[in-house]
Design goal:
The protein is of the alpha/beta class. 43% of the residues lie in helices and 15% in strands. It has twelve helices and eleven strands. It is globular and about 60 Å long. Bound molecules: nicotinamide-adenine-dinucleotide (NAD).
């Protein structure tokens, strides 16, 4: 099988490439990635000499390029996106371009060449939950609250529309917050780990009581693999972890894993505008239909991720060094 993996140089996409090429000897992968700030060739460098792996640096909005790649593959697994909520608060344009127009470009190509299409999405399209509300399911009405989640919601609707209108063989997965190796150090878990490793403080938005349902990226990749091969065409699957820690508890766990004391390690900063309070997704559909459930507990996953960052300073240090520091200085100094 030959797969076109968009955004395969990013966090989850590169983990998925490791998963696929590690598991299936006879699979080939074309990674189409624009190498934006969060895309990194190094994430897949262990495959660079493998004939089954090809990197194409390009934009998913480029119809001609996308057509030339899509016609030669069996399926498209679509990860490419602008993904950081804070960046979407500062400027939404790139989010609409890549997440909406880029997805539509890929869909037109998939329609033209009649290709299987799996779309990676987020539970953030469902909005936020209060503490006692039941977890999101595949039937929860969409209610996105950030420019990021609004653009992902638009892309989900387009994917579903191509199924109904054009009979395109699609599936969608809506997953909760991921963490693990190769996660760009701007998101809560890697930012906390790397700040502490650098001797800086971990920052917590507001009072840190926001609740997330964390899933290790290896479990997400296993779910996508199953849906791609065994999912029912036209269906959506919710993919989630089995936990509901607050952001503060996550930071406290990392502080403890690094052997630091909380006092002097944590700084509370102003909250993100429109910060969603809680996410949680019910994964009973994928569990019943495809037999998937998360295999890694949050404690195991956090320990593994902290260890990975300790051992891979040469991967994350340059990312925090230049444009990242400038971005944080320019945009986050008031938070
Ligand atoms: N990270 C999470 O917790 C999470 C949770 C649920 C769903 N998702 C979804 O999973 C997907 C991957 O997320 P991630 O965390 O790996 O993101 P990421 O930011 O680490 O990676 C995104 C990748 O897309 C590439 N890209 C961006 N714009 C592009 C364009 N126009 N053309 C080609 N490539 C482009 C980037 O270079 C990068 O390699 C996204 O669709 C995201 O919405 C993420």
């Amino acid at each position: 099988m030959k797969l076109l993996i968009t955004g395969g140089a990013g966090f989850i996409g590169s983990n998925f490439i490791h998963h696929i090429l590690g598991k299936y000897d006879d699979y080939e992968v074309i990674c189409l990635d624009k190498l934006t700030y969060s895309g990194n060739k190094k994430n897949n460098e262990s495959w660079s000499d493998d004939k089954r792996y090809t990197l194409v640096v390009g934009d998913i909005c480029d119809q001609k390029l996308v057509d030339s790649l899509v016609k030669n593959v069996d399926a498209i697994v679509h990860f490419a996106a602008e993904t950081h909520v804070d960046r979407s608060v500062l400027s939404a344009r790139e989010f609409v371009m890549t997440n909406v127009i880029g997805t539509q470009t890929l869909l037109d190509s998939a329609k033209k060449y009649k290709k299987r299409f799996h779309h990676i999405s987020t539970d953030e399209v469902f909005g936020e939950l209060s503490p006692l509300e039941s977890a999101f399911t595949e039937d929860t009405p969409y209610d996105p609250r950030s420019p990021y989640s609004a653009s992902k919601a638009a892309s989900d609707h387009l994917v579903r529309a191509y199924f109904h209108t054009h009979d395109l063989p699609i599936t969608i997965s809506n997953c909760t917050n991921n963490y693990g190796p190769y996660i760009y150090p701007e998101k809560l878990i890697p930012l906390t780990i790397t700040n502490l490793l650098e001797g800086k403080k971990a920052t917590v938005y507001g009072n840190g009581n926001q609740i997330r349902d964390w899933l290790h990226v290896s479990d997400h990749c296993a779910a996508i693999d199953l849906i791609l091969h065994e999912g029912k065409i036209g269906e959506t699957y919710g993919v989630g972890g089995d936990n509901q820690p607050t952001n503060l508890q996550i930071v406290q766990s990392i502080v403890a894993l690094l052997g630091k004391s909380e006092e002097g390690s944590i700084e509370f900063v102003g909250d993100r505008p429109g910060h969603d309070f809680r996410y949680d997704i019910n994964y009973s559909k994928i569990n019943k239909e495809l037999g998937w459930s998360p295999q890694m507990t949050l404690d195991q996953g956090l320990e593994q991720t902290v260890q990975w960052f300790k051992e891979n300073e040469s991967w994350w240090k340059p990312l925090k060094g230049s444009s990242y520091e400038k971005y944080m200085r320019d945009h986050m100094s008031d938070k």
